Amino acid sequence: MAMAIAFPEATNLGDGGTTTPQQPKLDGVSFSQVKMQRPPHLTDYLPHLKTFPNPLDQNQFFHPSNGFYLTTSDVVLRQIIYDLSSSSSANPSQHLAYQRAGPRKEIFFDPGHVRAAIVTCGGLCPGVNTVIRELVVGLWELYGVREILGLKAGYRGFYSMAEPVALNPKIVHNWHKIGGTMLETSRGGFDLDKIVNAIQHRCFNQVFIIGGDGTMRGAVKIFDEIRRRKLNVAIVGIPKTVDNDVGIIDRSFGFQTAVDMAQQAINAAHVEAESAVNGVGLVKLMGRSTGHITLHSTLSSRDVDCCLIPENEFYLEGKGGLFEFLEHRLKQNGHAVLVVAEGAGQNMIPRSDAQKEERDESGNPVFLDVGGWLKSELKKWWSRDHPGDLFTVKYIDPTYMIRAVPANATDNLNCTLLAHSAIHGVMAGYTGFVVGPVNGNYVCMPVQEVAEAKNPVNTGDHKWAWVRSVTNQPDFLRS
Ligand SMILES: Nc1ncnc2c1ncn2[C@@H]1O[C@H](COP(=O)(O)OP(=O)(O)OP(=O)(O)O)[C@@H](O)[C@H]1O
Ligand SMILES: O=P(O)(O)OC[C@H]1O[C@](O)(CO)[C@@H](O)[C@@H]1O
Ligand SMILES: [Mg+2]
Q: Keyword NADP on this protein (predicted)?
């Protein structure tokens, strides 16, 4: 259950500020223990900015009701799970809270003078085009913004020769049905000075940055430099990661679509394995440092015999190893399905010194193909231990097929709410922030905090325990 609490009007909600006049209590939690993770605001360094009434007041189709506009006292608690035995160390002494995302009665931009920029960075993810579409339509329809520019091909689009594209609702109207990013994306090309100079020279005053963990680390630097130069420019990040490796938020958009798409590969692997004598279906799924796609695909499919993720090291030979497990499973069922995340098992794959150093343009390590390596190890093992017996490994690597698709309905809705959260937040003067769902409610969080937060699979929790009991796979803890 979400715990969005409306405080009585707070007197001091500055960075780390926590005081409220009446110190109310909720189920034994004193509000004085709440620590606001307040997003930065333009007035932190431009204290005399003018405010404007929210144009939603004048919207001819919609009349804001009581409570429609949020204030600084509308917050969402980060933690909603507690152990009521008071001595437990699971309970924090302070409760982190984020500002709820949504429209504010007063805004800090004259919509007629807004020049908004949208950029997409990093790998593709289902729903990127939906976010762009909803940013454009939302800025245009809700606030009457008319200058919206799409930058081409990631961060380098700020300063490259490619001219930004003028966007309007007509141009973007069916983008939510298209996979990829119509603005194009790229890795690398982060040149801080050139980017911030370009923001100044092109007179952008709202910058919407859609990207993953690397992109958010870049957004922190852009925000810091904008603040250092005291520019009236709001920066907002919208987390995009098919791997679901960004922390704090419940889930990143596009992730569920990717899990849906992965089912097709797992089903095919299952059919191939079942139709062979001693058949193994092997599927490799995306997940550089986190195994969320692999884990969720395993739990959704129920045809998976073993799920291998980067957070849980595995080994092949000996007691409790993968080969011993497969030996039993093949004897029992005649077939088995393995699903492996691309970042799993990387330490076991032999590689040259040059391969160890290899990085992509953004500085991410380049992985070797764990699926291809596993397939060859499985074949070696079988011919060594069962010479002459039939054995088949069918390896399926759907790679980009799970992310180069339009978002499903759930992800599309998430994209819409994210875009609207970003627009309302920026209009309200927030900057250096990221929007996302926390405990089911959309919030504005400091970009610095999100850029530092990771989201590994917790192999100590019940979800991973459930994977183990669904598959009965070994825990790979050498005894
Ligand atoms: N520490 C950093 N500082 C500044 N810029 C960065 C940093 N890390 C990455 N970037 C830039 O952010 C952009 C995207 O980074 P990256 O390729 O790692 O993808 P990402 O945003 O993490 O998305 P994903 O991993 O989900 O595809 C690139 O332009 C890269 O140069
Ligand atoms: O080949 P590209 O476009 O660099 O992207 C591949 C990577 O992007 C991701 O989808 C997201 O980081 C990873 O799962 C994958 O390793
Ligand atoms: Mg990344």
A: no
Considering the domain architecture, whether residues 316 and 365 belong to the same structural domain is answered as: yes
Pairwise CA distance, residues 355 & 373, whole Å:
15
Please report, for the domain that includes residue 173, its CATH number: 3.40.50.450
Name the residue of 158, 185, 190 whose CB sits within 8 Å of the most ligand 1 atoms, as the mutation to test its pocket: 190
Q: Is residue 230 domain-shared with residue 294, that is, in the same domain? A: no
Q: 294: domain range?
A: 255-404
Ligand 2 contacts CB of residue 369 (under 6 A): no
Same domain, yes or no, for 66 and 190?
Answer: yes
477 inside domain: no
pLDDT at 61: 85
Whether residues 299 and 284 fall in one domain: yes
- Per the annotation, the verdict on 243 as an active-site residue is yes
Q: Which residue has the tokens 């010479």?
A: 387
Average pLDDT score over residue span 242-265: 97
Is pLDDT of 36 > 50?
A: yes
Angle CA 163–164–168, to nearest 5: 140
Query: pLDDT digits over 367-392, tens only?
Result: 999 999 999 999 999 999 999 999 99
Does 110 contact ligand 2 (Cβ within 6 A)?
A: no
223 and 208 in a common domain: yes
Same-domain check for residues 266 and 229:
no
Transcribe 330-382 into DSSP letters.
HHHHSEEEEEEETTTTGGGS---HHHHH-B-TTSPBPPP-HHHHHHHHHHHHH
The verdict on ipTM greater than 0.95 is yes
pLDDT digits (tens, 9 = 90+) for 164-209: 999 999 999 999 999 999 999 999 999 999 999 999 999 999 999 9
pLDDT band at residue 1, thresholds of 50, 70 and 90? very low
Regarding whether 425 and 369 lie in a shared domain, the answer is no
Closest ligand to residue 212's CA: 1
In-domain check, residue 13 = no
Which residue of the set 44, 57, 243, 245 is catalytic? 243
Nearest CA to ligand 2 atom 5: 123
- Output the CA 390–ligand 3 centroid distance in Å: 41
Residue 129 lies in a domain: yes
> How many CA atoms does the CB half-sphere of 92 hold within 13 Å?
12
Would you say residue 251 has pLDDT above 50?
yes
